Amino acid sequence: MSTPTYDELASTWTRLHHLGHLQSIAGWDQAANMPPKGVEARAAAMAEMAALLHRMRTDPKLPDQLARAEQEPLSDPQRANLREMRREWRLSNALPESLVQRQQLATSRCEHAWRTQRPANDWAGFVANFREVLAIGREEAALLSAETGLRKYDAMMDRFEPGMTSARLDAIFGDVRQWLPGLVQRVMAKQADEKVVQPAGPFPIEKQRALCEQAMRLLGFDFEAGRLDVSAHPFCGGVPEDVRMTTRFRDDEFLGSLMGTVHETGHGRYEQNLPRDWLGQPLANARSMALHESQSLSFEMQLGAHPGFVKHLAPLVAAAFERQPAFEPANLYRLMTRVKPGLIRVDADEVTYAAHIILRYEIERPLVEGEIEPEDIPALWDAKMKELLGLDTRGNFKDGPLQDVHWPEALFGYFPCYSLGAMYAAQWFAAMRRGIPDLDIRINRGDFAVVFDWLRENIWSQASRWSTDDLARRASGEALNPAHFRAHLEKRYL
Amino acid sequence: MSTPTYDELASTWTRLHHLGHLQSIAGWDQAANMPPKGVEARAAAMAEMAALLHRMRTDPKLPDQLARAEQEPLSDPQRANLREMRREWRLSNALPESLVQRQQLATSRCEHAWRTQRPANDWAGFVANFREVLAIGREEAALLSAETGLRKYDAMMDRFEPGMTSARLDAIFGDVRQWLPGLVQRVMAKQADEKVVQPAGPFPIEKQRALCEQAMRLLGFDFEAGRLDVSAHPFCGGVPEDVRMTTRFRDDEFLGSLMGTVHETGHGRYEQNLPRDWLGQPLANARSMALHESQSLSFEMQLGAHPGFVKHLAPLVAAAFERQPAFEPANLYRLMTRVKPGLIRVDADEVTYAAHIILRYEIERPLVEGEIEPEDIPALWDAKMKELLGLDTRGNFKDGPLQDVHWPEALFGYFPCYSLGAMYAAQWFAAMRRGIPDLDIRINRGDFAVVFDWLRENIWSQASRWSTDDLARRASGEALNPAHFRAHLEKRYL
């Protein structure tokens, strides 16, 4: 069957994929390798490429091509691919270039100042810049809302998590809100008597690096199609054919790097196992940010903190450093599952993490929709930290609303993906246990392939073939159901 | 004064520079980092970018813009910049795209087969592929010759070394041919009684790496604007703002990596010191390949093998490894200046190196011009190796005409740049000694800045402002004069 216009679109997207490859690798290089004096030239090169890709995605020929291709006799996957092309087209064309430029200037000014304002606890200074970031963010939300028909905040979130709405989130997080503070208290009471031996450092960086690579091998990362390097902020970049993961090391602590690497390995394997036949087409992209996070958290929390996995990880830890009592599997497991409310999101344990996200969601949604102003944030932050985690954060802006880079960078609508990812991960493992009754026995035996095979079949290979809800239903029999997350926490921690 | 068309051209070249930046970094990454399964995706991405840059350089608007800009009231540097733009335009537009594609296929097939044919000593197999590479190379030479009015070989060489001709080369190499074999014999006789202590390994790679970085610092490399990594074939890549040098290590030998790094540092400092105000414009590019080589050889041979430099390098070597007699400055100097005819160009010493180049030049010129055929190469190779270096190479193709990647890759006309670079380097140091009578005393004292300052003022900062001949005249009072090279060798080695 002849699909000439669809084919033209497909080759446009292949070109975007090839040029995006260079952008990804240069982005990784910037974080992992680039010396300081390279900054300006790299920024100019990246901006040139971004402008070029933007011109390709806003080519005036595209709307007509998309409309004509929709009339062609397409296969189901082609039709899904076309749906994703239209989605990308809509996202690229919704915003006038002048807004994009103003936003880049405002976020870059705000983010740059934030780097010193945070350590200086300078909330007033931050708000002076943030006001403009927010104003432009609200303009963006209004335009995206007009384009999609979604509520303003939902339209922002849709960029990262298509199909998710604040109505659903209100229900999901509203439920978690009810039981989480009580659960935290019960877990802490239970853990109060536990003896936990702290590992004694130092832990030489080279040994940590080798240990991280061993953990990645244990988790099936393909080193022929990727690598591990160091950057200030760990991430998983590169391209599906060549995944570039990063971590960071300190010599007085190793568990943070190790489990951070396990986390990024989940992102990495998702990317490495996207469907090869479709690479370059939007159909082959990871489904969404929550789905991506569901993979990193499947690796870090569901599998990585599973006693059966820890049993196999512990000997590698003991072999990497001098043997010590802290490295006994049972103790390592206790270290990895210790629950303690704290002020900092990125340091939070699996149980209290959701509280940090709910708090941010409950602030950024009304903020984007104009119901509150930046001045209102500190009081809301204090009240919610008290309510959710029983912590006093008054006057401590640097460990409060100044702790994250997301708001200075105008990434409104992103935070929920983290907790949605944790919920999906729990849902995947619940489905796995239904389908593979001896799952835990096999994990205890070190047969992790059973997990990877399930994820490959149900998540990785499906890429963007279905909407998130359909993907979840096909994989687990139901759309997102946070009850699995609660059940997981109660089972593991009570 | 209004120069609207020139300004348009300048911004086109700035865009080329920015996109070329990503291409350079991805090229470096490919050699230094990329895992094996990244090959195909990277090749596709690089080809996409090459096609994009080619489209920009063959934009049908350019000829008219170049002609109109030439009528605008330009400053002298702008006019020089426009001259270089026209040169780049001519090189990009001289060849039809079909030829470029056929050439890419033929060279990639030939080069790929060569990797196994060389170790297998399979000359006949090589010729089967090389015949097509040569046929396309001759087509290319004919087109470039028609475009430039130069002889065919000269038109090929002009891509790398603008302004150089085979008439000049015949005179230059004809002269060297007369005295070189005799000089080699005299040096060998002189060195026959010298006692040279060989260093005893192993030399741990991490210590070698640190030593190489120390040598780079001694040579003024700016690590804030570049780095040293490892690749199979050392090179100097990246961009002027962020120079990416590579080396390779073996643990039984350190001098090769160390002096290779000193060599690449010469390339690196040239790039790091190109005129900042003009970066992105062709005026700011390095002048030519021979000029580039003159910088690496100024570093490796003129300065790097200078007894005054070796005196300051030796303690770093002794500190990097266990102290041993081989690391005494006088012995290290003897190791670095040992002359011994050998079959392999890249392993050749400073004196015999030129023989390898003359041999290749005397074969590739008639080859390109259709005076000889690939079948004729082995006999010519054997005769010339005998004549120039007294070595028998019969039947040993792998250490003979199969040893270099240049011919399989159709880089005809490149080889002379290596020896021209050595000659220019000698000429720069002769000029330096005339201008700075205590040059050697200062080098002995460790004051290398005197060398760098001269090179910065006369070579690096001049970039492509002048033709090579004019640059040489402004720097040293005369165009290329190979007498300085001979004098340098006789002074150092007799």
Whole-number mean pLDDT of chain A: 96
**Sheet of most strands of chain A:** 3 strands, mixed
Number of strands of chain A: 3
Helical region count of chain A?
20
Task: Report the portion of residues of chain A in β strands.
Answer: under 5%
Counting copies of identical and different chains, the oligomeric state is homodimer
N-to-C SSE series of chain A? HHHHHHHHHEEEHHHHHHHHHHH
Rg of Cα set of chain A: 23 Å
Structural features, described:
The first copy, chain A, has 494 residues and is mainly alpha-helical. The first copy, chain A, has a domain at 1-92. Helices cover 63% and strands 3% of the residues of chain A. The first copy, chain A, is built from 20 helices and three strands. The first copy, chain A, has helices spanning 4-32, 39-57, 62-70, 76-93, 97-117, 123-148, 152-158, 166-191, 205-218, 255-272, 289-303, 307-320, 329-336, 353-368, 377-389, 416-435, 439-445, 449-458, 468-476, 483-493; strands at residues 226-230, 236-239, 242-247. A three-stranded mixed beta sheet of chain A has the order 1-3-2. In chain A, strand 2 and strand 3 form a beta hairpin. In chain A, helix 8 (166-191) runs antiparallel to helix 14 (353-368) and helix 10 (255-272) crosses helix 11 (289-303). The longest helix of chain A is centred in the first third of the chain and has 29 residues, at 4-32. The first copy, chain A, is globular. In chain A, 43% of the residues are buried. The model of chain A has no long low-confidence stretch (mean pLDDT 96). The A-B interface holds A 15, 18-19, 21-23, 25-26, 29, 33-38, 40-42, 44-49, 52, 222-227, 239-242, 279 and B 15, 18-19, 21-23, 25-26, 29, 33-38, 40-42, 44-49, 52, 222-227, 239-242, 279.
